[in-house]
TrEMBL record:
Stored PANTHER family: ALDEHYDE DEHYDROGENASE, ALDEHYDE DEHYDROGENASE TYPE III, ISOFORM Q
GO cellular component, one term: cytoplasm
Classification via CDD domains: ALDH_F3-13-14_CALDH-like
Homology family: Belongs to the aldehyde dehydrogenase family.
Protein name stated in the entry: Aldehyde dehydrogenase
UniProt xrefs under Pfam families: Aldedh (PF00171)
Organism listed in the record: Pseudidiomarina aestuarii
Length: 445
């Protein structure tokens, strides 16, 4: 099957602007025609509400496609660069060309967006693609595997469903690029397999993304924005604030404001709230319940196995070396830790793996600048959470253990393209001094 994609690629069909445009429009049509079924699948897999599903998956993807279609012609154009005098006359360009046949492996938490947004970039760049959705979001994976061949060119785009075994079979093949979204453990497997074929990889991984709340932050707004970013998709978001470092003088007040925000969003009983999701499976549910004893439950702490429900929970008095502070939480539990000042917060962050996202909350611009300049993170957003995802002019990706490479908008197009260095020279000017023999006169030149 993968060989047949190579044959398709070799015909050159995927290189044309018209093919790319037509495929992107067809993908948009797939989403529009099947919106209801897609939202239902998200609900089946993660208890995702319609509003959340629309905001973070359907709407996100449609605006990604729209942005790509709007700029595609320009992105595809060779970009002229200057020509040095020594190489005059002539012209130099960066010529974007597709990579060939690429593999895209998605994660389960945003099972539509994380599979199809890389696909938008891969199509835009003129590639054939193999898609491997995550088996943990089974309803969505099955639906996409059924729909995609009906809308997209089946000779150029194929979907393989299945678990780790299928993924490993695919990884044994030679691809021209692999984009993997998921945890670091499998990220290492992907990178090792790719090394066998010297295939370049983009790894969109995770980690513990901190939120730093300083003394002069607007607490009610800060709390609402942290609560929104944390408890959307029941905390199963790679860029969710994993934990909060708060100025010790504001610790109790912030916890109170967070409680208010939870109440405002989900009412007194979050299990009854239509906008509150469920944990993807029993194994993750159990892992998360285990974290509840790693601190004092300041809010929430209730759970229900049958429904894979865990209440939005705030943990205080959490030890920095406890499991909940060592592993990525990836669920609805928020540890809040006091720090004495910005320097202590920076030190705490710098001693740990470089996170995927970092959130700073302060009314003082120079304080936020200090945080930016003294920490590492894939992405940073000041005085809010998650919102940076809405700007296609910003790249998305991690750094160090939170990932390598980036995408969204033009950055995705670039990830799935090779920017060939191209110089073209005319015949009419061919002075002999560049050729041997190199006489002493020529050497002086
Ligand atoms: P997952 O379990 O869905 O796995 C991702 C992919 O890896 C799937 O296609 C799966 O089939 C495959 N896989 C699983 N085991 C494998 C194996 N042994 N060999 C080969 N392939 C295998 O995803 P996950 O790891 O549970 O996802 C959660 C993690 O992903 C979190 O760490 C989260 O932060 C991260 N994440 C990152 C982003 C991002 O954009 N950076 C987005 C979402 C999730």
């Amino acid at each position: 099957m993968i060989e047949s994609l190579r044959t398709t690629y070799a015909t050159g069909v995927t290189r044309s602007y018209s093919w790319r445009k037509q495929q992107l429009e067809a993908l948009d049509k797939l989403i529009v025609d099947n919106e209801e079924d897609l939202l239902q699948a998200l609900h089946d897999d993660l208890g995702k509400s319609t509003a959340e599903g629309w905001l973070t998956e359907i709407g996100f993807l449609r605006s990604d496609i729209k942005h790509t279609l709007k700029h595609l012609r320009r992105w595809m154009r060779p970009q002229r660069v200057s020509q040095p005098l020594l190489a005059w006359p002539g012209k130099s360009y960066l010529q974007p060309e597709p990579l060939g046949v690429v593999l895209i492996m998605g994660a389960w938490n945003y099972p539509i967006q994380l599979l199809l947004s890389p696909l938008v970039a891969a199509i835009a760049a003129g590639n054939c693609a193999v898609l491997k959705p995550s088996e943990l979001a089974d309803a969505t994976a099955t639906l996409l595997a059924r729909l995609l061949p009906d809308y997209l060119d089946p000779k150029a785009i194929k979907v393989f469903t299945g678990g780790a075994e299928t993924a490993q079979q695919l990884l044994a093949e030679r691809f021209d690029h692999i984009m993997y979204t998921g945890g670091g453990r499998v990220g290492r497997i992907v990178m090792k397999a790719a090394a066998e074929h010297l295939t370049p990889v983009t790894l969109e991984l995770g980690g513990k993304s901190p939120a730093v709340v300083l003394n002069d932050a607007d607490l009610p707004t800060t709390a609402r924005r942290i609560a929104w970013g944390k408890w959307i998709n029941a905390g199963q978001t790679c860029i969710a604030p994993d934990y909060v470092l708060v100025d010790a003088r504001q610790h109790d007040a912030l916890v109170d404001e967070l409680k208010k925000a939870i109440h405002e969003f989900f009412g007194a009983e979050a299990d009854q709230a239509s906008d509150y999701g469920r944990i993807v499976n029993e194994q993750h549910w159990q892992r998360l319940v285990g974290y509840l004893s790693d601190g004092t439950v300041a809010h929430g702490g209730n759970y229900e196995r049958e429904e894979r429900y865990i209440e939005p929970t705030i943990l205080t008095s959490v030890a920095a070396d406890s499991a909940v502070m060592q592993e990525e939480i990836f669920g609805p539990i928020l540890p809040v830790l006091p720090v004495n000042n910005l320097a202590e917060a920076i030190d705490f962050i710098q001693r740990r793996d470089k996170p995927l996202a970092l959130y700073g909350f302060s009314s003082n611009r120079s304080t936020l600048q200090q945080l930016t300049e003294n920490t590492h993170a894939g992405n940073q957003c000041n005085n809010d959470t998650l919102m940076f995802m809405l700007n296609p002019e910003l790249p998305f990706g991690g750094v160090g253990p939170s990932g390598m490479g980036r995408y969204h908008g033009k950055f995705g197009f670039d990830t799935f393209s090779h920017h060939k260095a191209l110089m073209s020279r005319p015949f009419w000017f061919d002075p002999k001094f560049r050729y041997p023999p190199y006489t002493s006169f020529k050497q002086k030149l």
